[in-house]
């Protein structure tokens, strides 16, 4: 990362993602209130001091009028953000439809929508058209702001068509693409009617990155089996052009969490929580309310644990924070009612007049409350059915320096590859196994917990989000230099 000479101007980095890291609320005709949300990607880029980064993405709101668009563009410019304006129909077909109802479940091994097959197939084509149209709109904004030498880093499954749109207009643009979800086995990917178009477009990028080696391998197999291309140890070769494919596991800004624990308000919060749950072990789940997170399965495993271990019934509590997400998609609405029903049933079954075994919260917590919660947790229960990485597991570890609690982690989360040795790995579909792991975690001796925690803490504090971003961007620059050398030879 030290590659840049201090005297040279910083290299510009255009980060393109479906969502800007900002929530925008309209205050009036031409005024907006903006709030920055510091997710993994934002903190990663804040740490990239040697690059001059700006964001391009959808602001997450419908702004049909020019006055509103101009005002929002101006307000966002101060945060180094550039909006892409998507109309309501495009959002419906591209974001709710193709991204979240088709690619998202498929890439997480949940299949394609099954009901009403014929109409699904028909709407599939119009959703794919909207997806391509939306990707082209992102590309247009990138081209408008592009300056020679810029690096363009495209993110996630929303923008698989973007590398192609960018290179078609200007083959000199340096393009990287990173997938934050799993890339599934080629046998799953080949179910997609648009399987070839998406692969070919991603291959237009110079560097393609995934969280794990397995996802990278699946991608290369899909290109060899579905497109008939040549896979090499470096990536995929297509008509003499090599697209480099590699694994870049993301991390978190661990210092931010560790520092937060020292703040007086977080300490107060920790004290309150300890008093509130005195005499009980605290188990914690923090997830977006998404099918891939395996929340119903997790709660059923907790029920099985309580059923089999009556001595624990008034000594343990499960706090499940389920942050609502993609609420316009019917599958997500169904999931929400399903979870409420199961929680209600279990609390009715095992609750007393003074306490319930499950506290289920349908909202997000602010950063400080979340840190306090992580710090008082005895057992974190992360049982995703599939998950690209899962950074909640990293955040939990970062906040556990004094408690040294146990991490129960799904073997289907990317994080299982990095934190596996410091966690109890489970198959979330096996409810009995998860229930047994809960028992094992609650009864684990302190020295064993300490050893597992140390392993994880070391990993989380050394493999940070900043390091991830710096490595990806420097690999992208190197890949391009190597390609230029190859063509000169
Ligand atoms: C996953 C995706 C992200 C996405 C996030 C929240 O982590 O990989 O790209 O931003 O979920 O989902 P949303 O649909 O609300 O942006």
Automatic annotation (TrEMBL):
Keywords: Glycosyltransferase, Transferase. It comes from the Eukaryota. GO terms for biological process: trehalose biosynthetic process. It catalyses: D-glucose 6-phosphate + UDP-alpha-D-glucose = alpha,alpha-trehalose 6-phosphate + UDP + H(+). GO terms for molecular function: alpha,alpha-trehalose-phosphate synthase (UDP-forming) activity; trehalose-phosphatase activity. GO terms for cellular component: cytosol. In the N-terminal section; belongs to the glycosyltransferase 20 family. This is alpha,alpha-trehalose-phosphate synthase (UDP-forming).
């Amino acid at each position: 990362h030290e590659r840049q000479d201090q005297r040279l101007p910083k290299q510009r980095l255009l980060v393109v993602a479906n969502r800007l890291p900002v929530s925008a609320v309209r205050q009036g005709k031409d005024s907006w209130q903006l709030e920055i949300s510091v997710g993994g990607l934002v903190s990663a880029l804040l740490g990239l001091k040697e690059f001059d980064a700006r964001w391009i993405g959808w602001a997450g709101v419908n702004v049909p009028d020019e006055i509103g668009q101009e005002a929002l563009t101006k307000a966002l410019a101060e945060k180094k953000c550039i909006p892409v304006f998507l109309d309501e129909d495009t959002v419906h077909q591209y974001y709710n439809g193709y991204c979240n109802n088709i690619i998202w479940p498929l890439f997480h091994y949940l299949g394609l929508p099954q009901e009403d097959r014929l109409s699904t197939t028909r709407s599939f084509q119009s959703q794919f058209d909207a997806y391509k149209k939306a990707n082209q709109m992102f590309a247009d904004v990138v081209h408008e702001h592009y300056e020679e030498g810029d690096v363009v880093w495209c993110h996630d499954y929303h923008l698989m068509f973007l590398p192609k749109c960018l290179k078609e207009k200007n083959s000199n643009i340096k393009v990287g693409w990173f997938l934050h979800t799993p890339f599934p086995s080629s046998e799953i990917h080949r179910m997609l009617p648009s399987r070839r178009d998406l692969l070919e477009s991603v291959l237009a990028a110079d560097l393609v990155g995934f969280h794990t080696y397995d996802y990278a391998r699946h991608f290369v197999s899909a290109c060899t089996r579905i497109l008939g291309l040549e896979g090499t140890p470096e990536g995929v070769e297509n008509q003499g052009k090599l697209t480099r494919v590699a694994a870049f596991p993301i991390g978190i800004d661990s210092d931010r969490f560790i520092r937060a624990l020292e703040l007086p308000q977080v300490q107060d919060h920790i004290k309150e929580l300890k008093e509130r749950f005195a005499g009980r072990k605290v188990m914690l789940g923090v997830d977006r309310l998404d099918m891939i997170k395996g929340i119903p399965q997790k709660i059923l495993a907790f029920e099985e644990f309580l059923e089999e271990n009556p001595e624990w019934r008034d000594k343990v509590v499960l706090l499940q924070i389920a942050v609502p997400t993609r609420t316009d998609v019917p599958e997500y609405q169904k999931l929400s009612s399903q979870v409420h029903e199961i929680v209600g049933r279990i609390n009715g079954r095992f609750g007393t007049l003074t306490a319930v075994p499950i506290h289920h919260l349908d909202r997000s917590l602010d950063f400080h409350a979340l840190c306090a919660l992580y710090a008082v947790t005895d057992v974190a229960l992360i049982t995703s059915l599939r998950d690209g990485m899962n950074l909640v597991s990293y955040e939990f570890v970062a906040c556990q320096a004094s408690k040294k609690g146990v991490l129960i982690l799904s073997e289907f989360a990317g994080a299982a590859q990095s934190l596996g040795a410091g966690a109890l790995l489970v198959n979330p579909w096996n409810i009995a196994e998860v229930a047994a792991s809960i028992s094992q975690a609650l009864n684990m001796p302190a020295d064993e917990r300490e050893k597992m925690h140390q392993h994880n803490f070391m990993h989380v504090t050394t493999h940070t989000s900043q390091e991830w971003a710096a490595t990806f961007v420097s690999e992208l620059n190197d890949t391009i230099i190597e390609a230029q050398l190859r063509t000169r030879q």
